[in-house]
Structure formats: C-alpha cells, structure tokens
C-alpha cells in the first residue's frame, strides 16, 4: 500500500508519460476536474525503401559475352529438338492447327508467339545475299534474328527490309521484318493493326 504522497507522485509521473504534449499546469487542471482522458500517440513507422536490384548494363553484357553462342555449339543438329518443342508450342497455342483453322487467326497468334526454335526462310530482301537463308532462330533481338543454317553457320539477319516465311503443318506465314522491330517480350503485348498493303 502506498501513501498519499507516493500515489500522487506516481499519478503525476504516469500522466506526464501518457500526455507528453501537455504542460504540468494543464495536467493539474485536468486532475482537478477528476476526469482524465489519456492520449495515445502511435509511433510513425518508417517505410523501408526497397533496394532495386541493379542488372548488368548493355556494355557489361557485351563484355561478358552473355549472348554469344560458342563456336562448338553452333551446330544445326543440336537445335533440332528445340524446333520440335517450338512446333508443339505453336500447335498448343493455335488449338491444334486443324485444317479448318482460320489463317488470320493463326497469323495473329504467330505475330505474338515466341519464335525461338522456328525454322524461317528469307523470301524477300533489299539485299539479294540474304534471300534463301533458311535456319532455326536461336536468338531474337529488337533489330536482328540470329539463325543457324543446315551448313552449321550462324547468320545474323536484320529484320529491316527483309520478309521471312515460317511454315508449320502446311500453314505458311510471312513476317515483314520492317514492321516487326520489337523485342520478343514487347511483341507479346503489342496490338498489331491490319494493313492493306505492306512493302519492303
């Protein structure tokens, strides 16, 4: 049991802690009314800033040769299983590629599909040396395709001013490279508009 003076000191100290913004006179004034409303101050939580993970710059990626295919890996036969996987992926994407499938539906799906593993042929080009190049797409960048030919040669073919054909289960689709200058990730979200005539 505490004495009256100890109790008074305790109450004063307790109120001071509970109402830190009020002066002693204000606290005494509240006590005389015999009604005390304790204030609650919540501590503001400081938000921790998320640190963004910094990736490599384009220059660093080139220096590290991240996207380069080693010469001993540049063989057409190595990537044939990739082509078989791509064919199955397109069949699933186009719901089986049945004979009654609408060509424009297949075309619209191919425009947004991942082309890594597809066998393409350059059918038209402003540079005659590109015409006839056929092979499996190993890498797709914004402006170029990297294609491995049956002769085990890695060709870098620009999209600009070239027309490519893709054949799967009897469906032949044409890709106008000049209208296709996007990264694969950007292309999947792009809405392609139907145009009447397209030229190189």
UniProtKB/TrEMBL annotation:
<dbReference type="InterPro" id="IPR016848">
    <property type="entry name" value="RNase_P/MRP_Rpp29-subunit"/>
</dbReference>
<protein>
    <recommendedName>
        <fullName>Ribonuclease P protein subunit p29</fullName>
    </recommendedName>
</protein>
<keyword id="KW-0597">Phosphoprotein</keyword>
<dbReference type="GO" id="GO:0000172">
    <property type="term" value="C:ribonuclease MRP complex"/>
</dbReference>
<dbReference type="Pfam" id="PF01868">
    <property type="entry name" value="RNase_P-MRP_p29"/>
</dbReference>
<dbReference type="GO" id="GO:0005730">
    <property type="term" value="C:nucleolus"/>
</dbReference>
<dbReference type="GO" id="GO:0006364">
    <property type="term" value="P:rRNA processing"/>
</dbReference>
<comment type="similarity">
    <text>Belongs to the eukaryotic/archaeal RNase P protein component 1 family.</text>
</comment>
<dbReference type="GO" id="GO:0033204">
    <property type="term" value="F:ribonuclease P RNA binding"/>
</dbReference>
<dbReference type="GO" id="GO:0001682">
    <property type="term" value="P:tRNA 5'-leader removal"/>
</dbReference>
<dbReference type="InterPro" id="IPR023534">
    <property type="entry name" value="Rof/RNase_P-like"/>
</dbReference>
<comment type="subunit">
    <text>Component of nuclear RNase P and RNase MRP ribonucleoproteins. RNase P consists of a catalytic RNA moiety and 10 different protein chains; POP1, POP4, POP5, POP7, RPP14, RPP21, RPP25, RPP30, RPP38 and RPP40. Within the RNase P complex, POP1, POP7 and RPP25 form the 'finger' subcomplex, POP5, RPP14, RPP40 and homodimeric RPP30 form the 'palm' subcomplex, and RPP21, POP4 and RPP38 form the 'wrist' subcomplex. All subunits of the RNase P complex interact with the catalytic RNA. Several subunits of RNase P are also part of the RNase MRP complex.</text>
</comment>
<dbReference type="InterPro" id="IPR002730">
    <property type="entry name" value="Rpp29/RNP1"/>
</dbReference>
<dbReference type="GO" id="GO:0030677">
    <property type="term" value="C:ribonuclease P complex"/>
</dbReference>
<keyword id="KW-0819">tRNA processing</keyword>
<dbReference type="InterPro" id="IPR036980">
    <property type="entry name" value="RNase_P/MRP_Rpp29_sf"/>
</dbReference>
<keyword id="KW-0539">Nucleus</keyword>
<comment type="function">
    <text>Component of ribonuclease P, a ribonucleoprotein complex that generates mature tRNA molecules by cleaving their 5'-ends.</text>
</comment>
